[in-house]
């Protein structure tokens, strides 16, 4: 069976921008090697493969151009947007089966939200901070100007680094090889670098994401990274809110503005579950 890849842009901001994701429907019976090959040919940051599930609404398998990953936020939003457009899912509660177990999904209006579970938030060492600074073209003291960088995990891990200004984010000089080396050592997908300054007032943070270890130089919207950043905001930076709006993609070349919503469920003073959501736009297929 020939499988076509639909192109969806997830987490669009007022109908524009977003992050492209591939979606392959009726992927039942595809071998992992075949999925990886098709994801590599498609070349999108992530591609979701949709197949039948006995325990959830659908099963989703996620691949970057070079590696399999257990979860992907923007490809999940993309997949459920396609299913909703085709009338295969309606409003309300759904679920996805992944290699990391099932997760809940919500469809509300034109938005899809995916469940994330907080697992841990761990500071990195001074030596690792220096390596992270070098990888981003910063001085060592800049990466902990607001707080120590932490590895956060909500199903996958990202290194979250907070910088004071959008100017700091804009002037980053990422060394892809160094980022890939440290990402592998830390067991993370990549670096999620944030600032409390935003381009649009009323939003919480702006962000950039680099994941060259997984074949992604920079990404315009990262649902799992936004979840990790939300945990970091709440627990490390002390921004005690249960709702965040995260801008991403505005400092990329070419620019692709994205908007990610995060809802936190807090128990005993700590967020234990998150809902990451946004709007997707079908571009091709």
UniProtKB/TrEMBL annotation:
Record InterPro entries: Phenazine_PhzF-like
Keywords per UniProt:
Isomerase
Name any one Pfam family assigned in the record: PhzC-PhzF
The terms under GO molecular function for this entry are: isomerase activity
Catalytic residues per the record?
46
Q: Which GO terms describe its cellular component?
A: cytoplasm
| Entry-linked Gene3D superfamilies | Diaminopimelate Epimerase, Chain A, domain 1 (3.10.310.10)
Family assignment? Answer: Belongs to the PhzF family.
- Protein name (record): Predicted epimerase PhzC/PhzF-like protein
Q: Which organism is it from?
A: Hahella chejuensis (strain KCTC 2396)
